[in-house]
Design brief:
The complex is a heterodimer of chains A (about 250) and B (about 270).
Chain A (H helix, E strand, L loop, with lengths): L4 E12 L2 E12 L3 E5 L6 H8 L7 E6 L5 E4 L13 H5 L7 H10 L15 H12 L6 E5 L7 H18 L2 E5 L3 H5 L4 E6 L1 E6 L1 H4 L3 H21 L2 E3 L5 E3 L4
Parallel strand pairs in A: 3-7, 3-8, 5-6, 6-7
Antiparallel strand pairs in A: 1-2, 1-4, 8-9, 10-11
Helix pairs in contact in A: 3-4
Chain B lengths: L7 H25 L3 H20 L4 H19 L8 H21 L7 H6 L7 H30 L1 H6 L4 H23 L4 H13 L5 H26 L3 H24 L1
Helix pairs in contact in B: 1-6, 1-8, 1-9, 1-10, 2-3, 2-4, 2-8, 2-9, 3-8, 6-8, 9-10, 9-11, 10-11
Classes of the chains: A alpha/beta (about 250), B mainly alpha (about 270).
Chain lengths: ~250, ~270
């Protein structure tokens, strides 16, 4: 089912040491949709992803997952030890054994099959990120939870990362929950935006969120403009020869 | 059946072999998790344990166990998930333990203690009961490693990934600290408090130069440990050197040799 709901969050509330971190959050994650959480530092983005992936089990409200929902999770900061002799292949099997085929398949998902036998310490930052992203696809997950997957990657790398995430969504037909700071890069590929600042300021399609007063208050007119510009730049389709036709011009 | 252990040289060789076998996996985990300094700290503070053990007229190893376990329990309470152990804290514990221990030992009747044996080990004076303690504790440590190896390696590679995939990182950290404390307590007799860390770090560093997987590094560390042990005991016998220091020096010679060979091969 194309628009099957894989996870439904209702009235999520979470506080820590008397401080409210998340207040009354509700949303749905659907198959083959990319949902992006944006919000300022301390907005509770990582907390929300940890509630979704089950790392935080104590909270108020309700998370309804489709039966046996398989989740692939990429944490925000992953420090990989470079003191250790460790092949990429082994990194993929750190906490569970996988067959050779599964490993090849996972690595090919993010176009890094050629790195299989390389030592992890010899990888560049971008290569490592793609290997880690491949890792999350092991066991064919139905939901990918990616907490700032491009942190520490240069701009070209970022664009490539978001392309790969889009392709993964198409191929695996999985839901993707993404936390991001790169507003304009992310917006164009997102089906649903959750603008978070302890409470859900606004949510919906990128275009409508970027015009929402609470969004503007948080990120300013400039951020909204950059999305508008981006949307405008990409308001055309490429044909086979590489020429493009504009649909409309203001 | 075990009459052959009556020979002091055989006893010390067996003790050395047991120590090398457990030092390889433990040393690798400690180097990966940057915990080598912890073993040094526990070793130094163990002098206080020896003093306390002797002052209460029990076996020194009981005093040592009490002190090192107390230290690791306190450390695992104060360290948070992300913070590595603070070097300053470790240095303070290390040197206070050593200084306090030396003072305490100094107040005891001179014939009860051999400070040199505490500091640098006295492998040739190992008794059957020392050997039994070493053997049983090593078995316990191996059991702990066998059950938790995958989790220990995962935590060493990335605490974040391990945590995200259901490994209780803090629990594993606490277990690791406790196992290091046990290791230090049993290695003390063989290597002396000042040289324990050397035996955990030097063979491991040699192995790291050309290992391709965690397990391979453990095996190769074991071989380097074996070579250091053989070289140390032989030179100790030949030139009447102290055994502990002789083992450390030969471990370093093997490291330098390996470095030289890898350099030459990469030319």
């Amino acid at each position: 089912m194309a628009n099957e709901i894989l996870l439904r969050a209702r009235n999520i509330r979470y506080s820590q040491g008397g401080r409210v971190i998340l207040d009354n959050i509700s949303f749905e994650l659907k198959r083959a949709q990319i949902t992006t959480i944006i919000g300022p530092n301390g907005a509770g983005k990582s907390t929300l992803t940890n509630i979704v992936n089950g790392l935080i089990g104590q909270f108020d409200g309700e998370i309804e997952r489709s039966p046996d929902l398989r989740i692939g999770y990429l944490p925000q900061k992953v420090y990989v030890n470079t003191l250790m002799p460790l092949s990429v292949e082994r990194l993929l099997q750190l906490t569970q054994l996988s067959s050779d085929d599964e490993i090849d398949h996972a690595l090919s998902q993010t176009e890094v099959g050629y790195l299989k036998h390389r030592q992890v310490r010899s990888l560049s930052e971008g290569e490592l990120k793609r290997v880690l992203l491949a890792r999350t696809t092991l066991g064919s997950p139905e939901l990918l939870v990616l907490d700032e997957p491009t942190a520490g990657v240069d701009v070209t790398g970022e664009v490539k990362m978001y392309e790969l995430i889009g392709e993964l969504r198409d191929r695996l037909k999985c839901a993707v929950l993404l936390v991001s700071h790169d507003l304009h890069l992310v917006m164009s590929r997102t089906d649903q935006v959750l603008c978070l600042n302890q409470h859900l300021c606004c949510s919906g399609l990128p275009e409508s969120v970027s015009q929402h007063p609470e969004y503007l208050a948080l990120f300013g007119q400039q951020a909204s403009d950059s999305i508008a510009i981006y949307a405008h730049h990409h308001d055309h389709v490429h044909d086979v020869s590489g020429e493009h036709e504009d649909h409309h011009h203001a | 059946m075990l009459e052959w252990l009556d020979d002091f040289l055989l006893r010390s060789i067996v003790a050395g072999l047991i120590m090398v076998s457990i030092a390889a996996p433990m040393g690798c985990l400690m180097v990966w998790q940057r915990l080598a300094f912890l073993s040094d700290t526990l070793g130094h503070a163990a002098v206080l344990g020896v003093g306390i053990g002797l002052a209460f007229q029990t076996k020194p190893i009981f005093g040592v166990l009490a002190v090192v376990l107390l230290i690791v329990f306190s450390l695992s309470r104060v360290t948070s998930f992300n913070n590595a152990l603070s070097e300053t804290t470790l240095a303070i514990i290390s040197h206070t333990g050593l200084a306090g221990g030396i003072i305490l030992v100094g107040t005891l009747p001179a014939q009860t203690v051999n400070i040199e044996a505490i500091l640098f080990g006295d492998m040739l004076a190992i008794t059957l009961s020392d050997l039994a303690t070493l053997f049983i504790t090593t078995l316990i440590l191996f059991a702990g490693l066998a059950v938790n190896w995958r989790a220990f390696v995962a935590v060493s590679v990335s605490r974040e990934i391990a945590q995200a995939e259901g490994i209780e990182v803090r629990k594993m950290q606490f277990l690791m600290y406790t196992m290091i404390a046990l290791l230090v307590a049993i290695m003390m007799k063989v290597m002396g408090v000042l040289l324990i860390a050397a035996m955990l770090v030097i063979p491991t560093t040699s192995a790291r130069l050309f290992s391709r997987s965690p397990e391979q590094m453990v095996l190769i560390s074991g071989l380097y440990g074996l070579a250091a042990l053989a070289g140390g005991i032989a030179s100790s016998f030949q030139f009447d050197w102290q055994t502990g220091p002789a083992i450390v020096v030969s471990a370093t010679l093997f490291l330098l040799l390996t470095l030289a060979i890898t350099r030459l091969r990469s030319l």
